[in-house]
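Per reviewer request, we include the raw input and output of the structure prediction for the construct analysed in the revised manuscript.
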Amino acid sequence: MLGQHPLIRFLNQNRRKIRNIILIIVVFFLVLRTLNYMAQQKLEKEEIQKNTKQEQIAIETEHKELIEEFLDYCINKDVSSAYTMLSSENNYNTQNEFKENYINKYFSETKIYNITLKSSKNDEYIYNVKILNDILSSGTLDKNAINQNFVVVKEEGDYKILIEN
């Protein structure tokens, strides 16, 4: 083998080392690619969770505003506006019945309220609503707060309020 080119001679003498180096490089790139894929999946999952949380907060805000609007109508004795916001599943069959059994009963004086999300399941959201006398207007501390659950349900494309007594 006289006159063999030095490069071919080097490759023949170091065949095992070269093969091992190539194998190590291939394994390194495969591991790197796998780690990159796993990191990307984790980021996508976190993004989905973040978007879901933001959607949940937006829905809760919308529902609280709906309940606040309803309670403001009740405080201001706007029976027809408040009645239109009620779910058809409520026990009040007429506006007059609603006025007599709800507004006159609970809103005879100026009230304030506190709304807290209690639970949510399958597009039904249950809020605990605490209604108390307005301390500033009445001058007395109210010991008889009214606690009610308001369920926000979707009816015919709109959110409505179901009052649980």
